[in-house]
């Protein structure tokens, strides 16, 4: 059998290992952490358990497809449910809104709470599915770096609809046209944060995202988000993939324009016919590919935003809260200006709280809740994070106190903090960005690294920093696009 080495066991690395094992390769994964999953891991704090990074799960069929390919029934290995309410929204003036999965109920709720005509919701979601239907086959499922992608039927259809696909306006401009109530504009602008972008800059094409959440659905793995990692990791082991943890790769060996293996941190050389890089692309070029020609244009693209997370064990229950909760800033434009232009954190940030113990009670002790409390922050440019964390914690607590009308601080019994510096340290993401390069301009989809190297034969790329982008579904698709380029091992 031919051998494939994968550098990194992020979710795309694991998915790649499954696909290459099924193609007949002997697959070996090297991971610098002591555990698989990268950003999609977990944190235990006393009696509380938290999903460490991603909390929103869309397009579960991307996970299931891997089980189907291995001729296993996904339901026996990975179970999930569809959320009846995707998110609870809160504003400072006391307004609340539940985003029901049932679109009639959601339109009714929006109409009752915000006075917005129901038809506006329906039209916006038709528009969102229109963008998805035209662009998903082109951008999500194929390599943008293969001329065949640009000359097929899907591409031809998309060329004819450029205006309707939102390429020429920003997300905010499109949402201001679609909705009357500023709160609804804000709610739909928030989808830019799903890939770490700024709604006041990113093209309206990203209005594709509400389609995933509303028209298809938001889901929750019954054993928590970390079960996506666990179940796929187990599947890869069943297929014979081997992992070496606590093993950093120091260099990709390139001989006569071909990747031929890797050099490990202890100087050991491992040879392979195929090398797949799942490490963040920017840091990969700076370290394990530092002797190779650098794709400067791609490396210098602005990065997506990062996050500041407080994992809090809260010794009380709150009836008003659901799995996903958003407490909106009173000035969204100012908040995004701080994140993307000033490199700072706004004093009134939008706060997200994810509480898995509502769906998975053993994640918190009886009568308690596990609050994954997150705000979007700039990526790491050397800010004084210790100071920013202190200020932000105070601002978040004051905001929650105001809206929940409770003194939160005494309820926090355990705490751990993740910030852009520690995100980079734990997963090697350049500047701690959550989703690789940002999508703040209309060319950004083209300014992501391809799933292969055009300079070095047998070297491939997967993961959130390369095409088609960050987030679990796109990472899983990167593994598919990448492995589709690789011939079966004979
Ligand atoms: P990563 O998770 O980035 O892992 C890369 C792995 O490579 C790491 O394990 C690292 O240790 C290893 N590695 C790096 N260099 C080396 C080396 N030299 N040698 C060996 N190993 C190496 N996505 C969603 O879909 N929904 C969400 O709600 C969501 N929320 C998020 C919230 C947070 C706080 C974060 C951090 C991310 C979130 N994301 C979300 C994004 C999602 O987590 C990522 O896009 C995805 O998990 C990235 O996977 P990846 O395969 O690119 O690898």
Automatic annotation (TrEMBL):
Keyword annotations from UniProtKB, A to Z: Carotenoid biosynthesis, Oxidoreductase
GO BP of this protein: carotenoid biosynthetic process
Domain Amine oxidase: 11-481
Highest taxon of source: Bacteria
Gene3D superfamilies (alphabetical): FAD/NAD(P)-binding domain
A GO term for molecular function: oxidoreductase activity
Pfam families the record matches: Amino_oxidase
This protein's pathway: Carotenoid biosynthesis
Signal peptide range in chain numbering: none
Family as reported in the entry's similarity comment: Belongs to the carotenoid/retinoid oxidoreductase family.
Protein name: Phytoene desaturase
